[in-house]
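INTERNAL AUDIT FORM
Audit reference: QA-55
Scope: verify that the stored structure record matches its stored sequence.
Auditor: D.O.
Record contents follow.
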Amino acid sequence: QVQLVESGGGLVQAGGSLRLSCAASGRTFLMYAMAWFRQAPGKEREFVATVSWSGGNTYYADSVKGRFTISRDNAKNTVYLQMNSLKSEDTAVYYCAAGRTARGSRTPASYDYWGQGTQVTVSS
């Protein structure tokens, strides 16, 4: 019931910023927790951030805490990931995910729907 499409990735120098967007469709969007994960070649998918369906609760991986901000605008059916002070180790494909029962989970299996991913490359 939920379709997700990420955008906003690209090439940026270390210390720069990017804002990722995830456009969602589906009648139950307002009831889904949303999250961002990332995956580099040869590595497992890694939790980045999550936001509750109301937008009132957010959680972040230690590696991005203080640099990234997740938010959602339910009127626009869109979730955002503002990424500041980017590092070369942030280079990965970033995926948007939605989960009806995720409730702040950091585990990929807790999420039911996934976008196609958007590439973020940070040059050192």
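Auditor finding: record pair retrieved intact. The two ends are 40 Å apart (CA to CA).
Action required: none
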